[in-house]
Amino acid sequence: MKSKGIVKRVKKPSFWGNHEEKVPLELKEWVLNQYFSQGWLYIYCDSSCSKLNHGMSVACTYVGNGSVMVTQQLVYSPADVCGKNVFGELKSVIFALLNFSKYIETAHKGVTIYSDLDDIEMLLSKQIVFKKIDTLKTVQNELIDLFVKMQTENPELTIEVKYLTRQFKKHNPFMKASHNASRRLLKRS
């Protein structure tokens, strides 16, 4: 039987273009497993800040089930946290927690939120507490309260927030998408 039209073979997507040979095989497999995952939603968070005008933006990349979606938002940064990246990183995780339900499908069993804030897990468990800057204390408490609330409201989901290690950050197209989206939004504002 002869087929009509153009027959194309489906192959794995290449997120790295000409730089694919530089990317470690372990990272490629990790990224593709997340991209094709049908039971889990992966979220990559990043923020950008401008010391000149107190501007800050956050972005999240939602990955799973063969799709990638990027969202971003401008964030007001009070004077006591102007230029402090930790404030933006905490706000980006809050942004992810507030919006992940829009991207959850019935087959999803869990959500993993990645942040490049290396102490994120210790901040969530209050092993580290901000002492000097009131705004950071407030945002940390807001994050912890929201995290607990989301776990309570979604008992059928496993919700976790993890640090994205350097080994999985470099050449990661999803983290790069969040980074670029937050930078672009900040430049436009």
| H/E topology pattern | HEEEHEHHEHH
Mean pLDDT: 90
Strand order across the largest sheet: 3-2-1-4-5
Q: If helices are DSSP runs of H or I spanning 4 or more residues, what is the number of helices?
A: 6
GO molecular function: nucleic acid binding
Organism: Ureibacillus xyleni
InterPro entries: RNaseH-like_sf, RNaseH_sf
Protein name: RNase H type-1 domain-containing protein
Short description:
This protein is α/β, with parallel strands linked by helices. It has helices at residues 25-36, 85-99, 120-124, 134-153, 166-169, 173-188, and strands at residues 40-49, 55-64, 67-76, 110-115, 158-163.
Structure, explained:
This protein is of the alpha/beta class. It has a single domain, classed as Ribonuclease H-like superfamily/Ribonuclease H (Nucleotidyltransferase, domain 5, 2-Layer Sandwich), CATH 3.30.420.10. It is 38% helix and 22% strand. The protein has a five-stranded mixed beta sheet with strand order 3-2-1-4-5, with helices on both faces. Helix 2 (85-99) runs parallel beside helix 4 (134-153). The termini are far apart. This is RNase H type-1 domain-containing protein. One of its GO terms (molecular function) is nucleic acid binding.
Map the helices and strands.
Layout (H helix, E strand, L loop, with lengths): L24 H12 L3 E10 L5 E10 L2 E10 L8 H15 L10 E6 L4 H5 L9 H20 L4 E6 L2 H4 L3 H16 L1
Parallel strand pairs: 1-4, 4-5
Antiparallel strand pairs: 1-2, 2-3
InterPro entries: RNaseH-like_sf, RNaseH_sf
Protein name: RNase H type-1 domain-containing protein
GO molecular function: nucleic acid binding
